[in-house]
Specification:
By secondary structure, this protein is mainly alpha-helical. It has 2 domains: 87 residues, no CATH class; 63 residues, no CATH class. It contains 8 helices and no strands. The longest helix is centred in the middle third of the chain and has 26 residues. This is ABC TRANSPORTER G FAMILY MEMBER 36. It comes from Salix koriyanagi.
C-alpha cells in the first residue's frame, strides 16, 4: 500500500511495522542500482529508479537502506527481549505440565504399594493401567515407553512396571 493512501490516524502503524522498513530498504537498494538509475524515466529530468520510488512513496535517499537494516535489527533485538521477559514472568495460557520431584515420586510409590497390598487383586494397578489405556491403547500391553502418554502418566506407568518386576 502506498504511504499516501494510509489514513492519517493509521500513520503510527506504518512506523511501528518492521515490514515497512524492510520494504523501504529493499526497494531503495534495488532502484538505486545502475540498471534503473541509468535509464530515463517518463520525465527526462529524473531516472527510472527515482520515478518508481516516488511512485510508491518510498524514500529516494540511499541512506534508507542502512536505516531500514538498522531498524530491522533493532526490531529483532526488541522482540527477543520482550519474548524473553514474557517467558520469564508470564504464566502459560494453557494447562501447565507438572514437574515431578523425587519427594513426589516417593509418595506416589508408597501410595501405589499401599493400594496393591490393601487388596489382593491389585485393583490399584489396574486402575492406573485403565487410565493409561484411554490415552494410549498399547498401555495395557505393557508399553510404558510410548510417546502417547504425557509425563505424569508415563512416570506412573514406568514406576508400576518397575514395581511389578
Amino acid at each position: 500500500m502506498v504511504t499516501g493512501a494510509i489514513p492519517d490516524w493509521w500513520g503510527w502503524g506504518y512506523w511501528v511495522s518492521p515490514l515497512s522498513y524492510g520494504f523501504n530498504a529493499i526497494a531503495g537498494n534495488e532502484m538505486s542500482a545502475p540498471r534503473w538509475m541509468n535509464k530515463p524515466g517518463t520525465n527526462t529530468t529524473i531516472s527510472l529508479g527515482t520515478a518508481v520510488l516516488k511512485n510508491f512513496d518510498v524514500y529516494t535517499d540511499k541512506n534508507w537502506y542502512w536505516i531500514g537494516t538498522a531498524a530491522i535489527l533493532g526490531f529483532a533485538v526488541l522482540f527477543n527481549i520482550l519474548f524473553t521477559f514474557a517467558l520469564a514472568y508470564l504464566s502459560p495460557a494453557g494447562k501447565s505440565q507438572a514437574m515431578i520431584t523425587e519427594e513426589t515420586t516417593k509418595e506416589e510409590t508408597r501410595s501405589t504399594q499401599s493400594l496393591s497390598h490393601s487388596d489382593g487383586n491389585n485393583t490399584g494397578e489396574m486402575a492406573i493401567l485403565r487410565m493409561n489405556s484411554r490415552s494410549n491403547p498399547d498401555a495395557l500391553g505393557g508399553n510404558a515407553d510410548s510417546l502417547g502418554m504425557d509425563f505424569a502418566e508415563h512416570h506412573k506407568a514406568s514406576s508400576l512396571h518397575q514395581y511389578v518386576q
